Amino acid sequence: MATDTAFPIDVAQIVALFLESLFYGFYLVTFGMCMYALLSLGRKNGYRRWPLIVVALLLFTFATLDVAFLLRHVLDAFIWYKGPGGAIGELSNISYWVNVMKTVDYVAQTSIADGMLIYRCYIIYGRSWKIAAGLSVIWVAGMICEAFTCYIEFTLHTDTLLNAARLTPFITSTLTITLVLNLIATSMIVYKIWSLQRRDRLRVTSPAPLVGIVMRSDSDLPSCSARRGSSTASRAHDQRTPDRLVEYARSADDYGGRGRRTSRAVRPMVSLAVSYHANAGTLLTCAALCGVHVLQRGIPVAVVDIKTGINAGLLVVPILTVGIPWLVANMEACIKSLKTDVPRKMQMLEEIGWDDPEVKKS
Fold first, then answer.
1. Biased-composition ranges for Low complexity (predicted)?
2. Whole-structure pTM value
């Protein structure tokens, strides 16, 4: 019997009951927070939370049983046991069913917790079965040692403690394997989270992608220049130069450009096209909405900016040209002059820049 130790078994059991009850109270608080998060905050992913709820309930059950078994053992030793050796004699019976069940309870908690840790690694590493299989080998080895520990303790039938010669190798192996598994799995989780955060930081600090701005008119220049930023590649195009527009749109992806402020002709030719309509008031907003959303088949719609009267004129002229040939010639001459004006404005943008007053006047 263990009576000559500096910390007798009867004193150790009473201290253990007090400390375990204290930490069990802390555990109840964290368990309540865990269940609140799983049942209330995780409703959107209900099909994923049930495995976590089951694991949490199992751990709660085994933790409660451990406290209950310890209390029962103390009551047996100090209240109900009347045999030889008193409380120390009863507590020293290593094969007593309460002692064995406490060991089984500890083994179950450890196995479930280690399995959940492996599952976390499996999820964090993109459901990688290789990661899960490697860690599971260690996990299975630990459970084998735990099974031998329970079996030897149940069949030993002698007055001894857990430091018995037959038990020590398996208990030491169990604790060592559990420690190694937790260190490896936790280190892998920390490394994965750190690498993801580092990648996100690199993405934030990396140069922004180029954005190609397709303008139908130089009247869009003030709004587009205010939004282009320092990392955009800007090119001015017009519907009057369709060939130039097609050539630019087809080559935009080659240098990282993406269509912004695009017309319908450009959208099928770039991988990402986002329409942007600069507007200065309610009338322009309505014009932009009508021009984009009301062009169904069989319903001709013409939208003209209130500030660009020349467009209204060019729209009316083809209607009036029926039987008036000289109007057709004049309209073609006007359109040709507007077409030749585009390269001049392009060259001015490249030489002078976006913010120069002369560009905005042209």
1. 223-234
2. 0.55
